Amino acid sequence: MNGTMNGILLSILIWLPILGAVAVMVAGNQRPALAKGLALLIASATFILGLPLFFSFDTSTAAMQFVEQRVWIETFNINYTLGVDGFSAPLILLTMFFGVLVVIAGWRSIEKNVSQYMAAFLVMEGLMIGVFSALDALLFYVFFEAMLIPMFLVIGIWGGPRRVYATIKFFLYTFLGSVFMLIGLIYLYIQSGTWDILAWHEMPLGLTAQKWLFVGFLAAFAVKIPMFPVHTWLPDAHVEAPTGGSVILAAIMLKIGGYGFIRFSLPITPDASAALDWLVIALSLIAVVYIGFVALAQQDMKKLIAYSSISHMGFVTLGLFIAFAIYRKTGGVSGAALGVEGAMMQMISHGFISGALFLTVGVLYDRMHSRMIKDYGGVASTMPWFALFAVFFLMANSGLPGTSGFVGEFMVILSAFQANFWFAFLAAFTLILGAAYSLWLAKRVIFGAVVNREVENLQDINAREALVLGTLAVAILFFGLWPQPLVDMMQASVDNLLQHIIQSKVI
Amino acid sequence: MNSAQLLLAAPEIWVVAMAGVIAIVDLFLREERRGIIHLLAMLTVIFAAIITFRGGFLLDGVPTANAFADSFIRDAMGDVLKVFSFLLMGMIFIYSKYHLRNFNMFRSDFYTLSLEAMLGVMILISANSMLMIYLGLELVSLSVYALVAFDRESKRGSEAAMKYFVLGSVASGMLLYGMSMIYGATGSLLLPDIAEAIRVQGTDDILLVFGLVFVVVGIAFKFGVVPFHMWIPDVYEGAPPAVTLFISSVPKLAAFAMAYRFLSSGLGDLHIHWQGMLASLAVLSIILGNLAAIMQTNIKRMLAYSTISHMGFVMLGLLPGTAFGYGAAMYYVIVYGIMSVASFGMIILLSSRGVEAENLEDFKGLNQRNPFYAAIMALVMFSMAGIPPMVGFFAKLMVLKAVIEAGLLWLAVTAVVFAVIGAFYYLRLIKYMYFDDPEHEMPITAPVDFGAALTLNGAMILGLGIFSSSLITICMTSFGL
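Predict the joint structure of the above. Result:
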């Protein structure tokens, strides 16, 4: 890869899927097979073109890489600035990876408006890569909001019976959260005269202003991630969304909330984050423990996984915000670094695991058209290969050592010990709870006697499904056994972030 | 008066001449040749745009010029608004031809009246004295009263026209009353002289402030902001869509120009007094417009209430009284005009011969009937809701920035919260189009020019969003930014 290519690589990754989506819609309008083929081609091409983000990534620096800058709206000083660091590059790789998988996963199960379905996912992929690579706050906001449109349509058109309620709830919740952030962004622009996020990281700000900004960011990202009191849209959206929608929602969109905390809340309003960290930590612990219990009580497999997602994302926010408590207690940042790295690990790993779980449920749903746990039982005896994958993913979800699920949680818990024993105790509690609801789900659905004729007639997974699930299984195992490449990638950026957040910006 | 002064008003003169020509030509045309009238009207707006361009005021650095004893002004802002009026008018003519033909109303009166109304808009945009403002305002209003009742068989049309006429007359009367007080307090009809007089004598004149209140009422009526909005839903619903197209777009541009000229050029020093008035109008409009729109089942009424809330946003741009705020408000009205024309164009498209598409249900399953037009309508709805990258988002962004810069954070918060509530009814329309099945499979047919105009309109909504720099720059440079 030469230098000129690197300068526009991110733009290619954003616009290739979006423009490709237009081609899919136009060419594939009456020809679903062509639409699928073209979509697969575009998604794969994006993934392959995006591999330099991993291979040419310079792990020694926290500076932005693959930077591209153009003037967008001159009178308003808005630029089209793109770039990645150790936080965004892994998330973009994850996005591109799932971009290919959801196309394959939707191959058979979507029958209505195939070209629009494929196009919606391609547009979403491009916009999500845009969110992770935007370094201009307004550009970020544009991608952040625009992303809602394809997801709104995906849930609404291809979703389940209550899809209209679920999708409008999803849209309005997220929209309401993000408009407060928009006001915060405009305020920051008026104060600084620039939309450059990195310049905002350096900008001094009074504590009161910081607190209001923090609340604005929290409103946007807490809804997205989602945190405890504003999480109710997620189970509805997941239950009603088609499999592909659930996968993208769980694997990528939730991470945008966590990424937002890393990119905005922590470095721009460090003093407010330090002052209000108790709030986020409390909400995270409630999510981890209370939502874990809620997951235990679910009758619907997708709902169970949705609640499990909320509970697991609690680890991300916990890992990010205990940094302040650790710094206050120890005066050093090494323990805090562990927490932040754990949070990042958890995001990537939860992306793989939750995506895999929703695909697993999708496999069953395609055959039985039911998500209710009570309709299943003894699946292992008719679908042995499927059972193998399902049990493995559920184990990973409960944080089994050797899978990627273990790494992130373990790092966060370890670092939580340095902050407060009780934080760590409560967080570790989720390992038990997670194992309980995951394994109980496995017991009820996979094992036991065959409960009815439909289960008896189930076909085991075909090659296409095996490919999808197998790829994910390999990824989960790989990062569980050898997380080092990922840690290397983010190390410099984590250190840089911690330097930012321990420095007071109050003038 | 010399010819140079006359030349400044060349676009106006051209339009009034063509309106006369169209009226006369029609006398000699047989029924089936009436398409010529449409062509003449299109030529009128195209050449009006060219003549306006040739004036050179759109380019940077050309100073303003006055004519007719200073009561007429040509400047960059006015010319930008006029050019966009012509653009919108061209689209309106294309959309309405299809509707008028379908409903057997294709008569030349529509074109003459529309051009007269547009002339009023142009005069209002260029008005530099209170007399000129009143002249332009009445020219628009009287033409539009007649247009609303254009469908002679429609009872609802007559009722709407009557209601509009009565309320409009009251508003005109109030405006005139306010003007007379301002004239009494300052001794001049010319806006710059009024500003000068206020500067000399101070702002504490009770007569002046009293006059200001009535002027604001007149402006608010023209915008249709709460509590002077009562006519909007009835007129939108009662008037033929071809006329609603016009009412909802071009006169809003004039209303903005009128507000700017009056409040900033004339009564700029009274900013401290009118800021609060505009703030309450804005808040009430945004709240009531968005809440009432949720309850509508008739799409024209829904769009009427949505207009009310959008005009509330324009007020937000006006009230800081800064150059940036005026630029933002101007950008907002232009963007709103483009979106509004597209939405009513869609209503006309879905109306089949003799049956108007009126209810939200008529949009059911549009995606399955015609994915392309469904996508255009979705773009319009997302744009109105203020979702990026559509142009409607950038309009809201500019206005919010102006408000926050003025330190009125509470206004910005109220506005965005109700914008989210408002998003619901736009989403509901998208739900009908995309998530529901169609009730019938009647194919959607439209003439080529109609389809092309609607495509261009949709492309503008997306394109001006993604490449938003151009229009924003044009609006901001009009105010010297």
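Chain A is about 75% helix and 5% strand.
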